[in-house]
Every structure is written in C-alpha cells, then in structure tokens.
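Checklist before submission:
- one chain only
- standard amino acids only
- sequence pasted in full

Submission:
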Amino acid sequence: MIHRWSIARRLFVANLVIVLAFIAIGGTAAYVDARDRSYEEAGLRMTGVAAAIAASPLVLQAAGTPDPSALLQPYALEVMAGSGADFITIMAPDRTRWTHPRDEELGRPYIGSIDAALRGEMFTEVTAGTLGPSVRTIAPVKDAAGNVKALVAAGVTVRTVDVALSGRLPALLALGLALLLGGSLASWLLGRYLRRVTRGWGPEQLAQLFAYYESVLHSVREGLILIDTRGRVVMYNDQAAELLGLEPSGSGDDPSRPPAVSDLPLAESLKDLFESGRPAHDEIHLTGPRIVVVNQGPAVGPDSPGLRRPAVFGTVATIRDRTEIESLGSELETMRTLSSALRAQTHEHANRLHTMVSLLELGRTREALEFATRDLELSQQLTDEMVSSVDEPVLSALIMGKAAEANERGVKLTLATVGSASVAGLAVQDLVTILGNLLDNAIDAAADGKAPKQVELTVESDAEGLDITVRDSGSGIDPAAVDNIFKHGFSTKAPGPFGRGVGLALVRQAVQRLDGTMTITGTDGAQFHVFLPAMAAGTDKEEQFQ
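Returned file contents:
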C-alpha cells in the first residue's frame, strides 16, 4: 500500500514523524533542563535560608541550653512560614533533631549526610528524608573559636519543586503544538505543489515512467532534441546526435549544466530556429552532408487548477533525415531528363522516317539513301563523342540526355575532355547529382539568355582528381548573391510547384562528401568549377566562393 502513495503523501507523513520526534526529543530535553534549573534555584534559595539561620545568635545560644527545642522549634516554624521552605531542621552535631515540622520527629536522628558540615563546610544535596525526596542545604553553626556547635538543614521537597515546574509545561506544550502545526502546514503546502507537478505519482511510478521514456527516446528513428526557455539543450537522443553531428548523450553528463545551443556545432539556420523557440512545421535545413526536416513546438506542462494557461518549459524539436529522399529525387530528375530526351529523339526520328518514306514513294531512292546515311552519321558521331569522352556509362547517358534536352530548348551543349575523364574511386550517384544540377541550371540560364545560347562542359581527369567546369551564356550571377547561392531555398527563378533552391544545395553537399572544392566566377555568363580528388582524403576542405 505504501508503494502506491504519492510523493506528496510520503513527504507529509515523513515530515509529521520528524516533527513529532523533534518535539518529543526537544520537549524532553527542555523539561529535564527546566527541572535541573528548578532544583538549582531551590538549592540556592535554601542555601540562603540555611546560612541566615546558622548566623543567627539565637541558634548558638539555644545550643548551649539543656532544652534547645523549647527556643528553636517556634523560631524554625516561623522562618519556614516566611521563607517557603518545607522543613528547617536544627540539630546537634550527633544528628539529634532540635526542630522539625512534625513534633514526633523531635529528638530523633537526622537522616542525611552531615560529614561535610561537621568539617565546617556548607553543601547542598538531593536526598530522601522523612518528608520524601527533597533539595536541602546543610550549614554548620560555629562559635567564636570556629567549633561546630550545631547544624542547620533547610529544604523543599521534590514534589514542591515539580509543582512549580508544572507551571511551565503549558508553555512547552504550546510551543510543541505550534511546531507541529507549522511543520504540518509547510509540509501540506509543499505536498500540494509536488502533487501538482508530479501529477500525484509516486517515486516508483516516476522511475518506471522515466525508464519507459528513456527507452522510447533512444529507440525512435527520428531525432529528438529538448531545449529549455533559456536556450539550453536539456536532452537529445542518439538519432539526433547522428543527424546533427553531436557527441552522443551519455550518463556522465551533468544534467544541472546543460550546454547552450550556441555552443553546439550546429548549422546557423538550426541555431536560429532552436534559440527562437518558434513553432516550425516540416522545415528543411542543411547540416553538414545531410538534409533534415525539422518540426518544433512548445513543451507544455499539464493543466493545473488556478493557472490561466499551462506552463511552458521550452521546446521539443523532431528531426528527420531527408538526404536519401533528395538523392532519389535527383535520380528521378535524371531519369525524367533521359525520358524527355528519348521522347524528343523519338519525335525527331518519326519526322525523319516520314521524310524517307515520302522520298521512297516518290521514287527518289538515291536521295532517301543519302538522307538516311547523313542522319546516321550525325547521330553516331554524337554518340561516339559522348562514349569516348567519358568512360562512365551512367554519366555518358546523362550528358547525352542533357544534350538532347538542350537541343530541344534551342541551346547548344558542347563537351570537351582532357585526359581519360576517369571517375575511378568517386561515387557515381554524387557525380550525377553534381553534373546533373549544374547542367540543369546552365541550360535554364542559357535558354533565358541572349543568343548565341550555349553551354560548355569541360571534364579534365589526371592523377590528382577530376575537374568539371560548366559555363553558360546566360546573364551571369550577381556578386551580391554569391554568398547565398548555395543556401537551401535560395533561387533566382520563379517558384515552381515543388519549390526551388535545392539543386545547388545538393551540389554543395555532394562536393563536401567527396572532399572537393567549388568556385563560381563570371558576370557575363556563369562558370562553375568543381574539383574532386581521385580518392576521398577524409578531411574537410573549405569551399571557395569568388
């Protein structure tokens, strides 16, 4: 049953037990201390009474008479009534009582210690006598020569001291009750707060829930990052660390000192998003070699009575990898280009077949044969140039498709190669991404530019690597836009149905993956130059924008 208690109830019960124990221990200590002080005060008061009686000449005078009780008994009773003492016993050095509150005790021996008094010393003790336990002081009565002629014992019973002490008990009880009520109230208020923030769950339930959340956090395929209201990263899972290039979150991290977003090696666009805390829905960001989709929303606490709106503890961002999807899109675009080229060639081939059939129907066999031969020679020449220039069939097919597309749009695409144009050691998918997007942009720019509409592609291969240069006859690139041209979403073209500004961003990522460099030059037509080393060196090289 205890395991089902909430943290608030456990805290209240524990606090109540602690306060009760404190009151019991503190009250007992206070009572014992007050009792000791009462005994001490009673002893001091009896010391004064005994010393005053011992200094009285009447006592010394009566001690020398045959019947000391006749003089001292009335005197002792009078002093008792005035001093508040329970008994005053004046006795002979041999313990014989001369005075006593009870007449039947006269002449009987005194019960208690008198050795120190016989030596001329005054002392106080707590001992039991005929009246019960008492606090008493024994003082010697000396003559002029210093000889002890009598003893005086003045005291109060313990019961009398306890009755005086009981008058202080209400104050002690009131103090204890005040401590109990104050501690219970503070515990109730704290428990109410804990019940609200923990939703009435116990520590076992919270531990189990944390274990579930921890397992879910590190097992989901999406990246998850939690950021508080001060821009500090509270937590992120393994997938987020992989996508964002962060160190894996370990158990040795100090949860009380989470790192700030500005201290993490993130892309600037992601830093701005995380620090702003604004809602985001399927935003695309570039981070290193990846394209990620980010969704972000507020981390809202549970509804609580008395609050107008739930508390916001920060933001939660989910991150998905879109790199493979964009690569597939790039490959699909390449296939679309090849399909368009085949469609254009089919259309052109049909026109030529109709021409040859018409020549044959007119009986002009020689002219039909010459027309077919020239057409075959031109097609074979273009195919031979592409195949002999680039030894990668995929790139050859891509360039042939782009040449056909350019021709259909009235743009002349020329190819020049230096060396063997070998692409050994380089990922063909990345080369298709780089070359395909650069040619697409160049063909678009040339088609929209002034005549002559041309695109020049130069591929040079040597022992160091592969150089690709794409130049168009378009309007060129504004120098002010060079810094932004590779950012995701930036485009100088009109918005399309599927968005713009992705192609050159993919080119930059592919160049980075292959440890290459890229430069942009030219205002009278744009020129893109890409250098890719023969084998990936594994170190990042800095991009250059001119």
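Reviewer check: DSSP finds 14 helices and 14 strands in the chain.
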